[in-house]
Amino acid sequence: MNKHPNKSKHSDTLHKFYKREHDWGWKKFIVLPRLLDGFIDDSFSLIIKAQVQVIRKSVNGPFPCLDSQYRKELLRVYFTVVNQIFLRFMKEKRNKLMDDKTRWTNICAFWLGMDQKSRRAMSREKMDVIQKLVVKHFFINKNVTSPLVMDFLFKGLNSLVLDTNKEKIIITISKQIVRLLKDDSNASENTLKTLEDEPKKEIAFDTKELAVPIVSVDNDMFVLADDAMLLLEKAVLEPFPGERVPPNRIEVDYDEESDDEKLLTEYARHTLEVFVLDYIFCNKIEIAYKEAIALKMHEEHS
């Protein structure tokens, strides 16, 4: 530690502890003459401050999460790095999804030729399957930003689940009220119509500044929120979360740190949605398309 905080030397490391693990600790060095530049206090002592965060897996999923205070401290240093990790992933997937226009047109035609039941079956995947793949993709051993990335992916997942549940609750309550009023002979048609339209207005009001959702949650499944081909097109054409910052995000006395957390949570949520969409496209739709092409070629040559 230095007498002047901005001159203090900081180092963050990430390690898994094993019985025989010894390759951990602080590896940052300083030449001895520089210690005289504020590192030695008035009692001729050198102060070294160490902080340890034991990271445990979340009880609700495979994402290892941080304590709130430690997250804030890491965020001050690594906000830009984590931000770029999410952005880079989304840009790579965006470029990959429609890189071949001819192939894309053929897959769209194949998809439109499928029956609704097959499309619905392909448009969903178990949450635990996706979550394990997300951890495998984003968590890098001994990379200090990995726990921060995992933490925000968990926050993004919670945001996705809460919004899905909120929409279900609004619609369910409204239907129950309408059902009760239909039994009431004094209830007018206009009243019933207003109540039927109210949940749509409520949901539209809450999401008017957000992009159209790509994925929703149904019990233990991730489900595409619309037709797969439409969602793929939106994923390619729509701006990223940071490019559509709502006007009210900028305030006179805003909390910069809180604002950063909100932005990264939004990025993480969108990253999860793109991950699900890409997984379903590559591992279900594209494979089914290739199998159909192979079968057609076999029939033509037989």
TrEMBL record:
Q: Which Gene3D superfamilies match?
A: Apoptosis, Tumor Necrosis Factor Receptor Associated Protein 2, Chain A
Q: Which residues form the MATH domain?
A: 1-50
State the superkingdom: Eukaryota
PROSITE patterns given in the database record: MATH
Specify the protein name: MATH domain-containing protein
Protein's organism: Brassica oleracea (Wild cabbage)
